[in-house]
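Hello, quick one for you while I still have it in my head. My current little project is about how a certain protein chain folds up. You're getting the sequence in one-letter code plus the fold written as tokens. Would you mind checking whether the tokens look sensible for this chain? Here's the protein in full, and shout if anything looks odd to you:
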Amino acid sequence: MERPNYITPQGYHALKAEYDALFAGERPRLVETIAWAAGNGDRSENGDYIYGRKRLREIDRRLGWLSRRMKAAKVVDPCRQPNRERVFFGATVTIADEDDRERTLTIVGDDEADAGTGRVGWNAPLARALRGAGVGDLRVVRLPGGDREYEVMAITYPAG
């Protein structure tokens, strides 16, 4: 049995928007181009046909992946979190490492993670270590470069 795909409402809408854009936009235009290219004769040296078929396979693969992810999605709205004293899905957490360097991150679904913007996937080692922590708690994170200890400085959730 596959784990549920926890995701925020915004993340789910982004997956759906990408699916709709590919399925209703790019794919039909590509099928039309392939049909036109196929009617031009020799397909073995027809770049439009060869590239179109390759791109169509990529789109179909992506559509299948998006469909499976949306089907497994469990939309969790962080605004509705009843216990705002602990770190759960959707929390924005400020942590400090051993050198007192602070960093703020938001725990989101794995499909919407982006470390560059401080969005950490729910199943990432750092997020797993922080789950259930309260302000002032120390948590050790096992990373490839060695263990790091973080202190939870603040926990916030979006306003509902």
In short: Residues 141 and 148 are 5 Å apart (CA to CA). Residues 5-75 form a domain with the Helix Hairpins fold (CATH 1.10.287.180). The mean pLDDT is 91. Helices lie at 9-38, 47-71, 125-130.
